[in-house]
Write a structure and sequence with these properties.
Blueprint (H helix, E strand, L loop, with lengths): L1 E8 L7 H11 L6 E7 L2 E7 L13 E3 L4 E9 L2 H10 L9 H12 L9 E9 L4 E6 L8 E4 L3 E5 L2 H6 L8 H9 L15 E2 L4 E5 L5 E5 L14 H21 L5 E4 L4 H12 L6 E7 L10 H11 L2 E7 L1 H13 L9 H12 L5 E3 L4 H5 L4 H7 L4 H7 L6 H7 L9 H10 L7 H13 L4 H10 L4 E3 L5 H9 L2 H5 L5 H7 L5 H4 L16 H11 L2 H6 L4 H9 L12 H17 L2
Parallel strand pairs: 13-14, 13-16, 14-15, 16-17
Antiparallel strand pairs: 1-3, 1-9, 2-3, 4-5, 5-6, 6-7, 7-11, 8-9, 8-10, 11-12
Length: 591
């Protein structure tokens, strides 16, 4: 919905308009409709608005509630804001707007830090509580909306993008823990770290209370279990409940807006099911959008064969875009410049280019992220289940991009600081409240890994064009339900059995039973020709050599045999290395 930024100073200095304006310039694309600033000595907020709910000036931010002595900046959408508004009105609160933004202010005043337990939505927000003289910061349960920060002895600065913090002088040294995770978990760097030492991120389902003297208190307010319910459910009950919760998740995301909403239609089961459930619930004028690329060899570059069937069946108002590989490379720099963190997913550029076109028609879209993680849709899950060894070994063999020994060959010795990926996975798999190994896999994937891979990617690339993506499959109540299911139920029918059962009779069998697809962009998977030259130039550039992250002898091996260096998930390791260096050149060297 927006871009937010701000600063709380600890050194008795006033927040400067220059710092706020500098940060706001870097988040302007997230909120192209309006902007606003507010400051009071050592505290200041900035906001770039994408107007979706209460389009009037009463919904503008930073929002100041004079009666309650509270000031708020907020990015996201609260889906249950109307119900909360009604509840809070009965308790005597008077509202001056019709926005979900004001509902957060009243909820915080009434419930304090526990207000987040009453919010159903995707959000990152900061509230200055003048009476308590502290800053309250919160991020949604699933981490759908980003919030980065820089902490020094002088100030706590926050923003919706890393670029905002880099622009005001955050330390851009490489974080060695993050570097190993970046190159091992296909660019996932779990919170609180990022690739840069001076930029951190709030963990999902987390709140912070920050005092003007620099004291910080952190609290985790949601930790889902991955266990069977106390009262056993039948298979039919699990599936029926999935249908009910998914429909509810779709409808509440459709209803929380004062502007039209569309669907990003890939042609896969997940986005097709979103269209079907909208139609089932009575929505007739459904808008859909698809993108495709050129084929390479036998690797298909589009899924139009399937998305066209959905368009025909539900008579949607459809826009279809075809992008040639010759268009990808010239636009790659734009996409990378808009990445909050280096993202290697092939579909990053695809989402960037698709969002550019969709934003010309609409402001909000539904997207299918989260279905594979919640309902076992990936090919590596059965392989992990069948694997032997410790839990982390079983997971790592089919997920981690490069063995630790290869990582040590890839980077220079100053970054040989331990196997941080394994340490993090050990910690995740040691968490309580999971019945079996695959429960731990699904919980780690849907609550931690997905946050910093597909979810971050989609939010980042859509918001770069002032387009808000909503993800029904990541509804926290649906996720809790999915994690309570027996793994064998989700993994039946080669994965996503509950979703396939729901889809029978709603979708064509050809879409339900097709082989699992991915947002295809073959040019960044099978690296050759001008793409290979481009990546080789980046990795052998003077900037890369002088940065001294990578071992140049190993770089040469990968450049000369790129298709030998593929990951367990069929990604290009060469692209992983090139993208990281390209991101640093684009966002750090040229700041």
């Amino acid at each position: 919905m927006c871009g937010i930024c701000g600063q709380l100073r600890f050194d008795n200095q006033a927040v400067t308009s220059q710092d706020l304006n500098t940060m706001m310039q870097k988040i302007a694309r997230r909120g192209p409709d309006a902007s606003g600033v507010w400051s009071d000595q050592s505290i200041g907020f900035g906001h770039q608005r994408l107007s979706i709910i209460d389009l009037s000036n009463f919904g503008a931010q930073p929002m100041v509630d004079q009666a309650l002595d509270l000031v708020l900046v907020f990015n996201g959408t609260i889906y249950n804001y109307k119900a909360l508004r009604a509840e809070l009105s009965k308790k005597g609160y008077e509202f001056f707007s019709h926005s979900d933004t004001e509902t957060i202010i009243k909820a915080y005043h009434h419930w304090g830090e526990d207000c987040v337990l009453h919010l159903d939505g995707m959000f990152a927000f900061c509230i200055w509580d003048k009476a308590q003289q502290h800053l309250f910061v919160a991020r949604d349960r699933m981490g759908i909306k980003p919030l980065y920060f820089n902490l020094t002895d002088k100030a706590f600065s926050f923003a919706s993008s890393t670029q905002s913090l880099i622009a005001i002088g955050a330390n851009t040294d490489i974080n060695s823990v993050a570097l190993q995770q970046q190159l091992s978990l296909h660019a996932v760097v779990p919170a609180p770290n990022t690739i840069l030492e001076g930029v951190k991120k709030i963990k999902p389902a987390t709140t912070l209370v920050i005092k003007p003297n620099g004291d910080i208190r952190e609290k985790t307010y949601w930790q889902p279990k991955a266990q069977r319910p106390e009262i056993a459910l039948s298979i039919e009950e699990y599936i029926e409940r999935t249908h009910e919760l998914l429909t509810k998740a779709v409808l509440k995301r459709m209803n929380a807006a004062d502007v039209p909403i569309g669907v990003l239609l890939s042609g896969g089961l997940d986005s097709s099911l979103l269209v079907a459930l909208l139609h089932e619930a009575g929505h007739e004028d459904i808008r859909t959008f698809s993108i495709g690329f050129e084929d390479i060899d036998d690797e298909a570059g589009s899924e139009f064969e399937y998305s066209d069937q959905i368009v025909d069946k539900f008579n949607t108002r459809h826009e279809k875009y075809v992008v040639s590989n010759s268009q990808v490379l010239p636009r790659l720099g734009e996409a990378v410049a808009n990445m909050n963190e280096p993202m290697v997913g092939q579909d990053s550029v695809a989402f960037y280019l698709l969002s550019e076109q969709v934003s010309k028609h609409i402001k909000v879209v539904l997207s299918g992220q989260g279905a594979d993680e919640a309902f076992a849709g990936y090919f590596w899950y059965p392989r992990m289940q069948a694997e032997s060894g410790s839990e982390v070994e079983r997971f790592s063999k089919h997920y981690v991009d490069r063995p630790y020994e290869e990582y040590l060959q890839t980077v220079n010795k100053k970054y040989h600081s331990g196997n941080h990926t394994q340490a993090w996975l050990n910690k995740e798999f040691a968490k309580a409240n999971a019945d079996e190994f695959m429960d731990k896999v699904f919980r780690t994937d849907i609550t931690r890994l997905i946050v910093d891979d597909p979810v971050k990617r989609v939010d980042n690339m859509t918001m770069a064009w002032g387009l808000e993506a909503r993800v029904p499959f990541m509804d926290y109540q649906l996720v809790e339900h999915a994690l309570s299911m027996p793994p064998r139920l989700k993994m039946a029918e080669e994965g996503k059995h509950p979703l396939k059962q729901i889809s029978r009779g709603l979708l064509p069998d050809s879409v339900i039973d097709r082989k699992k697809g991915y947002f295809p962009m073959p040019a960044l998977k099978y690296v050759r020709g001008e793409f290979l030259d481009f990546m080789a130039d980046i990795l052998t550039s003077s900037q890369c050599i002088n940065r001294e992250i990578f071992d140049q002898k190993f770089i040469q091996k990968v450049i000369h045999q790129p298709e030998k260096y593929m990951t367990a998930l069929n990604g290009s390791r060469l692209w992983h290395l090139a993208l990281l260096e390209y991101w640093l050149q684009t966002n750090v060297d040229q700041k």
